[in-house]
Design goal:
little secondary structure; Pectate Lyase C-like; 14% helix; Alkaline Phosphatase, subunit A; 9% strand; disordered N terminus
């Protein structure tokens, strides 16, 4: 059902987040950027996955009761309410109490059901999967005082931060993965770095007040109402998904489940441009499925030792829209580096400032698309329909525009350095068409026009075009 052709090579964009421990200590580096090779075909252009875990409420205590979370569920994709479903179909926690559910969400394993104690496990886990892939990630602990904190202090509870439990992440050894990635943040609402591009994966553990553990469901709902809209308003939300779930249920049927689960039904929602309007799932799912879905979105393998990425607990693909591209879709600032969008219908899409470098757009329909300031360097636009597209200030350096049609396109100040502009040859009779295009101050340095020259620019505005190679004239 999902856009199978968009095989997106996920690249962790550079970002730097910081958090101050209480008392105003020095800032901590949260994550670094690493290249990530192309994984399996992915469903959407999602590059940033968030997981926020709240505390101790059943679905019946949240959905239809707390206004903001009900609004999120009705607006985006909701994993369902087992209590209202006549067949008991819905989303379930693993067991009780808190800690085993956090461990299940990050390891796919059933660990220490019946205990909230801090323990060390050599279990494969999401942090290790991200590290192995060279992917960027961060886990924030609100009200913690040191990185990779393993003791509960004040409003910080270690049982709500699973990553220090995994010995593979190095514990509190100086320079360990846990010390550099599991970071304190004094106040999430005030201190979270909204303006920094997030890593591929962000885990957020609110403190005992904000997650509702020591307060109430209403308090937690109000905290989310203050925090989530700031994430949604950030430019990088256009390529993000935010999972919000509760650890375990103490509402109706608190020990119910399916396939061996007994944590009760809990509220879970996926908030993203690509989940908007999707409604409720009609199949059982659980924390194991959420881990599988994160692995699927980020092109990660399963842990291989748990219930994630298995036939029993597959990715929740139905949370996401079956198509995320055109016509007339708004995806400004979206990172689609090296995506395969060949022959996609992108008519009228809003792609200003998008990163489409090295992207396969051959034969794509981009007529009327807004590509202002877009990065199209090295992209394959052979045979693409760009008629009437706005490419003002676009970077087309090294792009292949063979047989593309740019009739009526705006290429003011566009960079076409090193672009291939030739047609496909006399026997094909095709051309790169710039008829009526605005090439004002475009840079054609190093452009390859080839022979025979099939570039057509009838009626084009070519004033101040820079460095036109001799092979490109006439007519340019």
């Amino acid at each position: 059902m999902i856009l199978a052709t968009a095989a997106i090579a996920v690249m962790a964009l550079a970002g730097l987040a910081s958090a101050q421990a209480p008392g105003g200590s020095n800032t901590l580096t949260a994550f670094s950027s690493h290249p990530y090779s192309s994984g399996p075909a992915l469903p959407t252009p999602i590059k940033h996955v968030f997981l926020i875990v709240m505390e101790n409420e059943g679905t019946d205590q949240i959905y239809g009761v707390e206004p903001y979370e009900t609004q999120l569920a009705n607006t985006y994709a909701f994993a369902g309410d087992a209590n209202s479903n006549p067949d008991g179909v819905g989303y379930y926690a693993i067991c009780h109490p808190s800690a085993p559910n956090y461990l299940a969400l990050t390891s796919g394993q059933t660990l220490q059901c019946g205990s909230d104690n801090y323990n060390s496990y050599s279990a494969n886990n999401l942090g290790n999967l991200l590290q192995t892939k060279g992917e960027s990630w961060v886990a924030y602990s609100e009200s913690a005082t040191v990185p990779c904190q393993t003791t509960s202090v004040g409003e910080f509870a270690v049982k709500h931060q699973p990553f220090p439990y995994y010995s593979d992440l190095g514990g509190r050894t100086n320079g360990s993965v846990c010390m550099t990635h599991v970071l304190p943040i004094a106040n999430l609402t005030n201190d979270y770095p909204y303006n920094a591009t997030p890593p591929a994966f962000t885990y957020i553990a609110p403190n005992l007040l904000d997650d509702g553990h020591d307060t109430s469901a209403t308090y937690a709902d109000n905290w989310l109402k203050g925090f989530i809209p700031k994430l949604i308003a950030s430019p990088w939300f256009s390529s993000s998904v935010i999972f919000i779930t509760y650890d375990e249920s103490y509402g109706a049927n608190p020990d119910s489940g399916y396939d061996g689960l007994a944590g009760g039904p809990v509220y879970t929602v996926a908030v993203s441009p690509y989940t908007k309007g999707m409604g409720s799932l009609d199949t059982n799912s659980s924390h194991y499925n959420t881990l599988t879905t994160i692995e699927w979105l980020l092109g990660l393998p399963g842990t291989g030792t748990g219930n994630d990425s298995t036939a029993a607990f597959p990715a929740m693909t139905k949370l996401f829209q079956p198509r995320v591209f055109g016509p007339s879709v708004s995806l400004p600032y979206t990172d689609l580096l090296a995506a395969n969008l060949s022959r996609e219908d992108l008519r009228g899409d809003q792609l200003s400032y998008a990163n489409l470098g090295l992207t396969n757009l051959s034969g794509a329909d981009l007529a009327g698309a807004d590509l202002q300031y877009a990065n199209l360097s090295g992209s394959d636009l052979a045979g693409a329909d760009l008629r009437g597209a706005n490419l003002q200030y676009a970077d087309l350096a090294g792009a292949d525009l063979q047989a593309a049609s740019l009739a009526g396109a705006n290429l003011e100040y566009a960079d076409l350095a090193g672009a291939t502009l030739t047609g496909l040859g006399a026997s094909y009779g095709q051309a790169t068409v710039f008829d009526r295009a605005n090439l004002y101050e475009a840079n054609l340095a190093g452009a390859v026009c080839g022979s025979p020259n099939y570039i057509e620019a009838s009626g084009a505005h070519v004033a101040f075009v820079n460095a036109v190679p001799s092979g490109c004239a006439p007519p340019l």
